[in-house]
Amino acid sequence: MKTTPEHNERITKMTFASVYPHYITKVEKKGRTKEELHHVIEWLTGFNEGKLQALIDEKATFETFNLNPNANLIKGVICGYRIEELKNPITKQVRYLDKLVDELAKGRKMEKILRTN
Predict the structure, then answer these.
(1) What distance in Å separates the CA atoms of residue 8 and residue 6, rounded to the nearest whole number?
(2) Does 115 reside within a domain?
(3) Which end of the chain is more exposed for a tag (fewer CB within 10 A), N or C?
(4) What is the mean pLDDT of the chain?
(5) How far is it, in rounded angstroms, from Cα 35 to Cα 20?
(6) Could you tell me the pTM of the whole model?
(7) Could you give the count of Cα atoms lying within 13 Å of 72 in the half-sphere of its Cβ?
(8) Which Gene3D superfamilies does its entry note (predicted)?
(9) Cα separation of 100 and 56, whole Å?
(10) Residue 15 sits in which domain range?
(11) 15 forms bridges with which residues in the sheet?
(12) CB–CB of 15/66 below 8 Å?
């Protein structure tokens, strides 16, 4: 599936606070914990729980996120998009996080989710 300029603009304006509750619901519904979610988010972004709360309070967008150098090892399809083919860097960042949350919810082992070279 190809992204459109409108899709990329919507993703760019999306706040972390708007999707964070959905991530929690998704992982907890599948028997995983908020702490595991935070561990995954911290691996991807370097943000600890305090920084995550600050981002939520500030209604920060995904543009403020810095990614783990191994984020490019995240591959596959999420929400109908092949991550490797996404051109917009912000859209790619959001889909990286979506993919990790999805893997966590599906019961994948943490060692596999937190990719290394």
Answers:
(1) 5
(2) no
(3) C
(4) 94
(5) 13
(6) 0.91
(7) 4
(8) uncharacterized protein sp1917 domain (1.10.8.290)
(9) 19
(10) 5-108
(11) 61
(12) no
User: How would residue 4 be classed by pLDDT, with cut points 50, 70 and 90?
Assistant: confident
Q: Dmax over Cα atoms in the chain, in whole Å? A: 36
Q: Token pair 């972390």 is at which residue? A: 16
pLDDT of the residue at 116: 87
pLDDT in tens, 32-87: 999 999 999 999 999 999 999 999 999 999 988 889 999 999 999 998 999 999 99
Contact criterion met (CB below 8 Å) for 90 and 11: yes
Asked if the structure places residue 55 within a domain, the reply is: yes
**Which residue in this structure is represented by tokens 């706040």?**
15
Q: Tell me what pLDDT residue 33 has.
A: 97
Count structural domains, the chain.
1
Q: The domain that contains 38 carries what CATH number?
A: 1.10.8.290
